[in-house]
Amino acid sequence: MIQFLLNRELRSERALDPNTTVLQYLREYRGKTGTKEGCASGDCGACTVVVGELVGDRLRYRTLNSCLTFVSALHGKQLISVEDLKDQGRLHSVQQAMVDCHGSQCGFCTPGFVMSLFALQKNADAVNEYDPHQAHEALAGNLCRCTGYRPILEAAEQACCAKQPDQFDAREAETIAQLKAIAPREMAELSDGEKRCLSPLTVAELAEVYAANPDARLLAGGTDLALEVTQFHRELPVMIHVGQITEMKQVQTADRHIEIGAAAPLTDCYAALAAEYPDFGELLQRFASLQIRNQGTLGGNIGNASPIGDSPPLLIALGADVVLRKGVNSRTLPLEDYFIDYKVTARQPGEFIEKVRVPRATPDRLFRAYKVSKRLDDDISAVCAAFDLQITDGVVADARVAFGGMAATPKRAAACEATLNGAPWNQQTVEAACDALAEDFTPLTDFRASREYRLLVAQNLLRKCFLEQHAPKTETRVTAYV
Q: Which residues form the FAD-binding PCMH-type domain (predicted)?
């Protein structure tokens, strides 16, 4: 059984298909049709909802794509949909702002925008404070095809600057007490009799359950796994949800490395990674949308082994390790050795990613990362590049160069590195290293880019890294796009 709050109503679900998404649950089971399905892939934001959860003794509100969220992920949380905002016949201030600023035309996308504005308003650092950057980030995952974004951004400004206490503030203490009462205390199971989803609470429980069900699909944020249900119409017989395991959601900075639990949402990874590597932080802000980053995990981005995943090239260049667990045994593997072939990894049956260890930055190394995509926001890379260089007295003492989108796996550029290592850090060396990239990669042509384009972009990103190191930074480095 799982328990959660549907706004203020306690819901206990025992016999429910665990393949049911939150979007389906709202529309088909609860009759709340304000939340819309636009793409069923997490791209448009029409299905945006807000989930409230306890962080210590405080409530935290985050947006999610309900089309990519399975109901089991709601266990112990509060689900808020657009119908819940109106109170005693009065529109919520974010809804009123959309009306006042003419932010809606056909209206299909409006509920999603309203929920993103609601979370933006709730998470504002202070009353009557508006940060344009935060507004753009909050709305980047919501697409409007008719009104245009200027009036919606004006609505965001009005909503933040005219923030007033609402019914959620008035009932905060009550909500916190309700969430504490239903906080998970033992492993939960959601099943319709044929399919099931297990939600262990500890790493030890996960290891035991996964060993007993090695064919189960591991579910973290679900932003990739859910596509098998929503896009390919497959059924997932057994899932193991890792989102309740506190140990695997922690982000800790030690003396020599950052330790990131495999179930930590990307939003929670941002501060630690950006503090050490600003380019990593900038790339994370272009990683899909805020809704996806609130769900998706670093462990999941590695685990799905996509050749165009945004984080693996950066982590490989930095020399990150993954800690793999099976039963009571753990092993640590350099991330570059984790990827074997397209969608093939070194993970054994019953083995899972427990954590990721990223070396901390040192003053003697230069780290640069670049993402090239067709859209600036909410898009997948055509090419992703990362360079970690140690340059001593004008000579490249050590080079780690990694790319995504250039091969069947994210991988290092061995010939390029060999050309750089021990050579002067100058234009001539860089050009030779660019030529060597043609030995490292034979990229594919697909709908994102041609093989010729990808190779030229990869070479130009190395040139860009060199030029930036010799000139003041004048613009954001990772915001290159086609």
A: 190-363
